[in-house]
Amino acid sequence: MPFSIAIHGGAGTILREQMTPELQHAIEADLEKSVRCGFEILRSGGLAIDAVTAAVKVLEDSPHFNAGRGSVLTNQEMVEMDASIMDGRGKKAGAVAGVRHIRHPIELAKAVMQDSEHVFLIGEGAESFAFERDFPYTEQDYFYTDRRYEQLLSMKEKGLFALSESSYPDDKKYGTVGAVALDNNGNLASATSTGGITNKKYGRVGDSAVIGAGTWAENGVVAVSTTGMGEHFLQENVAADVAARVRYLQETIECAAEHIVQGELKARGGEGGLIAMDKCGNAHFAMNSSGMYRAMINTQGECKIKIYADQD
Ligand code: ASP
């Protein structure tokens, strides 16, 4: 049976003219490390759900992406992270939102899925659940980077909130992370993790924590992980809508994903993209932004890493 994995590191990308070779190399190295880590699990006969978790954890550890270490800062100068995961076997799901002291929010979302009768836990409750299961307490300092602090100050000055990737023409642009995979038993899985948007207030939660909007996996149909301004993805229920098109209209993942990302989503001003994987392990990357950090290892074992939208 074929197996494959695809990952993203967020939609919207640093402008070409501002990308240095060193920075590009560092981003690509982390993307490659992530996709290879997931692929090794699949190659040794592991489950898609474990492959997507492992791939996302690598990106949560990298300061180059808006998830785990390197997450954007809230208006209160804190890190508050959201994550969700779905196993295509039986459509089991787990999610957490607004967690502040968990090094790998995706691991916690997985624990909610596997070890509770719930699907979605938030804030202090989610952290209590974690610490009861021996997740280590991670200080806020661990997640903090100077770049995110500068971005927050600039957003506060302008009175805006924004995606990590947008509105920083003179800054580095990094994003939310996610992975989709097919294992050699035909199981699909999807995972998404984020710090959300810079300068967010009032416990704002985006699509990345929401099953159906940011994450979906259904065996025999599709696995999807999204990235972009979450408010639009929530209102279009993007990941589940891609799945519905594949399930009911028998569309290819390319057709379903492009329909939504270039159609409904774009029409309402929703900038961003998604990664989708079908039941045969084909991946499609759809975006209406200038780029999306992305990588995949296909069923032939070939690794591809890309940044800009116009790269083929
Ligand atoms: N979708 C995320 C959110 O709105 C942000 C992102 O994808 O960068 O929280």
Automatic annotation (TrEMBL):
<dbReference type="InterPro" id="IPR029055">
    <property type="entry name" value="Ntn_hydrolases_N"/>
</dbReference>
<protein>
    <submittedName>
        <fullName>Isoaspartyl peptidase/L-asparaginase</fullName>
    </submittedName>
</protein>
<dbReference type="InterPro" id="IPR000246">
    <property type="entry name" value="Peptidase_T2"/>
</dbReference>
<dbReference type="Pfam" id="PF01112">
    <property type="entry name" value="Asparaginase_2"/>
</dbReference>
